[in-house]
């Protein structure tokens, strides 16, 4: 069974790289959005996970997480961002973010690992902590 992942990525180049890295994966069907508005319009479809940056121009990522959680409380979140401020990470954890991945040379590797771990949680084979 594949799970539904929504990714918000404004940069077309980054979105293309993401598609190349995750195309044909066995865990998730991935849908891309280029704005907060388009993502929020689709959240009622019930994504299992939303992958987002905290630095969205339309709305801060923490506020976006809160908005999505109101619409679809069962959604999990993975943050992929350049922000490494401990206070921001703590706020994200307070909102129940599954993983917080800092963008860098190995971020796609960590993101793939995070998605695999989350798929096990969703299948009930790993205890979500």
Could you characterize the architecture of this molecule?
Keywords: DNA-binding, Phosphoprotein. Residues 4-118 form the Response regulatory domain. Pfam families: Response_reg. This is DNA-binding NtrC family response regulator. GO terms for molecular function: DNA binding. The protein is of the alpha/beta class and 129 residues long. It has one domain: Response regulator (Rossmann fold, 3-Layer(aba) Sandwich), CATH 3.40.50. The protein is built from five helices and five strands. The protein has helices spanning 12-22, 36-42, 61-71, 86-94, 107-122, and strands at residues 3-8, 28-33, 49-52, 76-81, 99-102. A five-stranded parallel β-sheet has the order 2-1-3-4-5, sandwiched between helices. Helix 4 (86-94) links the parallel strand 4 (76-81) and strand 5 (99-102). The two termini are 22 Å apart. 27% of the residues are buried. The model has no long low-confidence stretch (mean pLDDT 89).
Protein topology:
Layout: E1 3-8, H1 12-22, E2 28-33, H2 36-42, E3 49-52, H3 61-71, E4 76-81, H4 86-94, E5 99-102, H5 107-122
Parallel strand pairs: 1-2, 1-3, 3-4, 4-5
- Give the SSE string: EHEHEHEHEH
Strand fraction band?
15-25%
Helical residues, percent: 40-55%
Which second-level CATH architecture applies?
Answer: 3-Layer(aba) Sandwich
- Under CATH at level 1, the class stands as Alpha Beta
Integer average pLDDT: 89
Structural class: alpha/beta
Number of helices: 5
Overall tally of domains = 1
